[in-house]
Design brief:
Order of helices and strands: EHEHEHEHHEHHEHHEHEH
Number of strands: 8
Bound molecules: 2-phosphoglycolic acid
Distance between the termini: 10 Å
Structural class: alpha/beta
Largest sheet: 8 strands, parallel, barrel
Strand content: 5-15%
Length: 256
């Protein structure tokens, strides 16, 4: 298995600039000694703290991710932030299509696709989130929903380097609920996503792209999740807000 694990902390609407700097210094300390051949690590603070995070993490293996982006380069789009602005603030990744954005902020498959293309054009790495709701799962449409979100999200992307794209499978019923998908549930869907990536992009992209699992990941369940072939890391919400628990997830991911 040549895919290096990737652990991303999605802070959502938490932490001020001062709290971000503290956290990043602490995380840098906790991860000294690790190198990027073993694991990739990123934190996704709110927009206001991106550049403070980048500064505090300089010289470490930890990267900075944004939690969203808008696809235009510049323009009259009050409240929006472009890929170039994220790069300027020190970001390497941007999360797009998170279920909270789909649910509360009218994010659609089409807007997610435009955001992915704009990020790739700027040399930033999209972390494309997708996943079924509880109603989808109970109604037997998990695979149909995941297929639609994957096909629409990746449509027409010009990306040949698998290191330049990340997909995150996040079953909505597992986010913030404490109810983690079982390793087999995650594996089943993530293997399916990988097959779709081969069709939509290319077999080498499918082979190398990292597919993360997200939804109530904790230090206690990361090791088991990482035993699955198609689980290449995690997108962590709640448990990423504390340096100790996030560091334990990072070290747990290396075990595979
Ligand atoms: P959670 O969130 O780890 O708190 O379930 C995951 C996410 O929303 O990315």
């Amino acid at each position: 298995m040549s895919r290096t694990p990737l652990i991303v902390g999605n802070w959502k609407m938490f932490k001020t600039i001062a709290e971000t700097t503290d956290f990043c210094r602490g995380l840098k300390e906790e991860t000294t000694g690790l190198d990027e051949k073993q694991v990739g690590v990123a934190v996704a603070p709110p927009f206001t703290a991106l550049s403070a995070a980048a500064q505090a993490l300089r010289g470490s293996l930890i990267s900075v991710a944004a939690q969203d982006v808008f696809w235009a380069e510049t323009g009259a789009y009050t409240g929006e932030v472009s890929p170039k602005m994220l790069a300027d603030a020190g970001c390497r990744f941007a999360i797009i299509g998170h279920s909270e954005r789909r649910q509360y902020f009218h994010e659609t498959d089409d807007s997610v696709n435009k955001k992915a293309a704009a990020l790739i054009k700027e040399g930033l790495i999209p972390i494309l989130c997708l996943g079924e709701t509880l109603a989808d799962r109970q109604g037997g449409s998990t695979f149909a929903v995941v297929e639609r979100e994957t096909r629409e999200g990746l449509k027409g992307l010009s990306v040949r380097d698998p290191g330049k794209l990340v997909v995150a499978y996040e079953p909505v019923w597992a986010i913030g609920t404490g109810q983690t998908a079982t390793p087999n549930q995650a594996q089943e869907v993530q293997a399916f996503i990988r097959k779709l990536v081969a069709e939509i992009l290319s077999p080498p992209m499918a082979q190398g792209v990292r597919i993360l699992y997200g939804g109530s990941v904790k230090p206690e369940n990361i090791v088991e999740l990482m035993t699955m072939n198609d689980v290449d890391g995690a997108l962590v919400g709640g448990a990423s807000l504390d340096v100790k628990s996030f560091s334990r997830i990072v070290s747990g991911s290396i075990s595979r």
